[in-house]
Specification:
Shape: rod-shaped
Structural class: mainly alpha
Largest sheet: 2 strands, antiparallel
Low-confidence stretches: none
Number of helices: 7
Number of strands: 2
Order of helices and strands: HHHEEHHHH
Helix content: 55-70%
Mean pLDDT: 88
Amino acid sequence: MAGHRKTRKGKQTTTILVVRVFAIILLCLGLFVAFRYYRRQALQQEQIRQAELTKQEAAAKLLRQKKAFIQKVGPISQKVDKGTGLLPSITIAQACLESNYGQSALSQKYNNLFGVKGTNPNTSAVMTTKEYSNGKWVTVKARFQIYDSYEASIRAHVRLFQQGTSWNKDQYKDVLAAKDYKSQAKALVTDGYATDPDYSTKLINLIEQYNLNKYDN
């Protein structure tokens, strides 16, 4: 009998030991799974944080580029537009919009800020651009004027408004008659300068966003 009791006691001890080992294994497995989960969560959060930081840095860099471009063309526009009837704020906003703040290939390669077309092969170059035609944007190849500086581009821009087109010297009379940037921006569309129906709104938003009307004083 004593032998049987010892055998049962030994089996109970072994069972308890197995249960404890199994419980420890389960606990370790649970801890490992929890660690992996929280580690993965921490890595994902760090990736999101880094992505947001990268996005903020890119936005800050872009803003600095835009402001640097405005600071460059602002004084030139003030000087060239003086006494012409064209407001510097409009010229600056047009340059920003049409050259993508000096980042377009046309402005970087040829100092052409306003997408002015050319005909003389010696003073122009063929490039691909997008134009608004028949209610939609289309990609076209055209010949564009080459300038030796931003100032030369802005002076040619002003002459266009003063002299009009070859078929109508008074083409932009409403633009030059306007006394504030909102009226002048809207006149650019009504006088046929821009084909984009949202052109005036874009100019006005740019002027107000960067306080460009300070150059009008």
